[in-house]
Amino acid sequence: MTAFEASAIPGEPPPADSVAPRDSTADAPTSVARLNGTIRDFIARWNTVWVEGEITSWNLRGGNVFARLKDVRSDAQISIRVWSSVRARIPADLAVGDHVVAAVKADYFVKGGDFSFIVSTMKHVGLGDQLEKLEKLRAQLRQEGLFESARKKPLPFLPRRIGLITGERSDAEKDVLRNAELRWPQVRFRTEYAAVQGDRCVPETLVALQRLDADPEVDVIIIARGGGDPQTLLGFSDERLVRAVAAASTPVVSAIGHENDHPLLDDVADLRASTPTDAAKRVVPDVGEQRALIAQLRARATSRLTQRIAHDISQLEQLRSRPVLRTPDPIIEDRAHEIWLLASRGRDTLTRRLDAAGRTTAELRASLRALSPAATLARGYAIAHLDDGRILSDAADAPSGTPMTVTVDRGSLRARSEGQIAEAE
User: pLDDT digit string (tens) for 395-409?
Assistant: First the structure.
């Protein structure tokens, strides 16, 4: 007898209006219930098997766990269920990403037609291959200094334009835009859409990052995605994307998943936001808070200026209350008299010096006049000059016929020597 020859539900007769699957025809089909029952009876004969895999999802519902296991060497996956009675006997710290070995038995849910495996026991094998690779990459990037706070760029206070990389029509996009506009209504965005999971995630995100980083009007870039299991967030731990973000000239904010999600992008980004909503709050200032701060600073400046003016007025009043400033006329009069005396003394001194200099000049002029040759000439004497410029002082130097110039008191005249006159005996 084959599996499809079995009854629909053990212990219960098959429905009267249904034939066995093996006898079904187009005119006499079997029922869904009988088909599902036949499948379940066939699967129930399978023995328990041990399977190795990586936990990719782990959802707790009413004490029971509904999860998925992924093959560590391929993309093959199975659905597993851990009932509350079994959950109490397995490690309590099992979580997504754990590499485990589990004893499972196939189960087919007749009512819903769902196929899954029921776990009877489960234990750790170690970190899943993917998470183990990520941890090695994390250690390498940390050693290269890509996680250092010193290399991270500060965010602008009020960006001119914000670059946003996210999934098209995603909740993350709505959260960022709505919260940013609530905080600063005039905020401007340039949005580049990219796949946020799967094989297209990394190449499309790299292209979007390159475009926004090359835009001179974009002052900060937000990479945003909603939460998910580590399997769906793997693209944001890709080494190509991580290194591109580290090399970007524009500050980058990582807003991937929820608070507990921690892709490598969070470590190299210039700022890590716990959620897309938190990213909007960290990048865009609140206009209400800034207005309140400006009002507070104005009030503080007004108060300080008022105090300073009052202090200066008080000091000025103190200075004006002093006797010297209260009645300054006597001081001015004393100084004016002192200046008049000094000016009078200066005039007297200058007059005496001028008179003495005049007398000295007259004496010198008289002395010069007495020593001047002109005074001798005025008494009738003359001076004879030879043509070579010599003054004739010896008659022997002017033999007969020697021309000469004779200078008298009033002019000069030409003369010629007649020779030396003999002296009388």
Answer: 888 888 899 998 888
